Queue: 2 jobs
Job 1
Amino acid sequence: MGEPVSLAEGVNVIHGELRGRFPYAHALLIQDDMTVLIDTGAGDRPLGSVPATPDVIINSHFHADHTRGNRLFPDAAVWAAAEDAPAIRSEDEFVTRAGYTRMGPGRARLMLDWIEHAESRVDRELAGDEVLELGRRKLRLIPAPGHTPGHLAFYLEREGILFTADVDLTSFGPWYANPGSDPDQFEDSIRRLAEVPARLIVSAHKGILREELPRRLEMYRAVIDARDQRCLELLARGPATLGQLARHWPIHGRPLQPGWLYGTWERIMLEHQLVRLQRRGLVRAGEDGRMERVAGA
Ligand SMILES: [Zn+2]
């Protein structure tokens, strides 16, 4: 953490507390005729030192580590993708979409307190895939669903700066543990972002990246394939229920504590992974409800 870091004239990264680790995230401030702050989960102290007051906040998606600080800028308009807007406005909608109801009694409140969730108005619902004229520069919105349905990335064409939000390039991702997440969409989004001729990426949890951007994106995408392989190897031993598969942690690769949190994420991501493998014709649900490999596939 520290002072905002300038990437180009009028473009600053606001580094999140805990070096941007969840429940914090890095943010991007773009000062132009219209000043835009992308994401507000950096923490109260970093957000208190932004070099200009935003006219507009754009939340990359509905997660609290990207929306929590909207309340710090009461005069700013809040924009977000139409798909994610309901979960920014409503705590109940957030809890459902975040899958907290699956973590056991009392856990939703525990999670909401930990992430310091705060409801926010959304003044404009974005369609995605549009270019915003900020004044001297254009900000291209790039739909990048998979992490959440309305997840957006952002490209400043003139500066070659790509804000990938939670296509975050961390070793923990790609993360698709919401009931509405989708690893196939996530994979398509990574590929779409790899086509952007960026000279620099800002990831919400990894920060500023300048080197080997296409290779890093491809390695990140390949993690989804590695998870496919671990599931297929387990199923090569014979049919198994989702619970039996989850006990081997094929998504995270190793057991993580606390189990009520990471175990729930493992199960949700495993469900999505098995849907992905079924779409590819590699796995099917047997008559007894157990998952099995498709012979010859
Ligand atoms: Zn997120």
Note: The longest strand covers residues 138-143.
Job 2
Amino acid sequence: MSEFKTPATEADFDKNFAQIKPLMTANQAHFESSRCLFCYDAPCVTACPTGIDIPLFIKQINSGNVNGAARTIYESNYFGHACGKVCPTEVLCEGSCVYNHQGVPAIEIGRLQSFATEKAIRESMPIANLSGKTAGKVAIVGAGPAGISCACELRSLGLDVDIFEAKALGSGLTVYGVAPYKITNEEALAEVEYLQKQFGFKIQYNHPIQSSQDIEQLEKEYDAIFIGIGLGRTSSLGIAGEELQGVEGAVEFVEKLRMNKANEKVPAQVIVLGAGNTAMDAASESARMGAADVTLAYRREKEAMGAYHFEYELAKSVGVKALFNAAPLRIIGNDKVEGVEFVRTRESNGKLESIAGSEFIVPADLVIKATGQSKQREFLALISGVQLDSKGNIIADSDSFQTGNPKYYAAGDAVSGGQEVVNAVANGKKAAKAIAKSIAG
Ligand SMILES: Cc1cc2nc3c(=O)[nH]c(=O)nc-3n(C[C@H](O)[C@H](O)[C@H](O)COP(=O)(O)OP(=O)(O)OC[C@H]3O[C@@H](n4cnc5c(N)ncnc54)[C@H](O)[C@@H]3O)c2cc1C
Ligand code: SF4
């Protein structure tokens, strides 16, 4: 039974979706930073895909130099604020903190990072040095973490940048996908606005690049093109009943929730199909929207779940129930969804098999498919020379992120097939360095 009442107002929504890593006060930041051992060869730095000098920024906070701390963070990671809030720090920097070996809570690196960067954003603290100007103009397709990170780095290397974004807002899944209890829309958008002001790149919103003509135009006008388009819509399950009213993809469900907040309604009985991090988010969010009964259903056993353990614990903590070894056979209903028929499964010689005669039905008013995101194959097929692997991910060089067409570079989820914000930020920046080098000659 969910402990949350259906939110009627935006204030109710914010209460149900209270930040799990709230901003620290100055006192809290001072106390927490004083716990850091400022380790030599610090494992927390090695664990960060953007290699932020964590002991340095923590020391700067501790000595009262909060702006210096923000500068240290942004030098390595242009999404410093967002990453402080949305990164799975439990398995990255904080998971590597030496305190874990001593049975003492790890330093709250993420919250310290957000503390310093929030001040920088609020005070419009200068971070960019745009003194140099280099000939060259780059088009970026997609204003997600990969695209924006690439834009910031290119601008700091002196090139001109235009971003073309299909949607109305910037920051990609940071605002459209990540769970609202990790970062608010306002926080995600404030960082993009700050970076835009600092680095001076343009974003053309509601401007999808979608036809051969669009692509030809970009190729004529720009010296290089960076593809940071992420992934597509939720993949289909391939079972009967997916077309029924009340069956939704997890990515689309979360996007509607983030945009409409309390105006979105979630019914009483929800089944989430899948066991990755997105499934955990969709289940937690349904519970926080007041659904009375939320069940995560996964065809394999608990140990095979793709989600981080802490994400599963978070979902359970808000009343989400789990159903393991249950494979969906069909979604049931007339026009509108009424339930899901499952069959019990078991592992036999490493293979998953259905147990004959074990079929059962779980009633539902909403079925959320958290079955991964599809690839944007049709769009990518329009660009000659850009090759995809068998899974539909763009093939790009692992250092330069150049694709099979030398004018095109790509990074982020469109290349990795789906990682974290921090990986997209790290690789978007590396691509920018390679683009600048290639344009320079
Ligand atoms: C539900 C969900 C929850 C997540 N939660 C977390 C989390 O808690 N922490 C975390 O670190 N990561 C999380 N992730 C993963 C993370 O959001 C992604 O790894 C990251 O956003 C990838 O960045 P990107 O720039 O490659 O792509 P995206 O963020 O997807 O951005 C791509 C951008 O390109 C635009 N675009 C696409 N096609 C076109 C086109 N043809 N023309 C113009 N623009 C286009 C899109 O509108 C979008 O704005 C989550 C992902 C999902 C789906
Ligand atoms: S590992 Fe922990 S204690 Fe050591 S520098 Fe990093 S945050 Fe500080």
Note: The chain has three domains: 22-122, 137-232+375-440, 247-369.
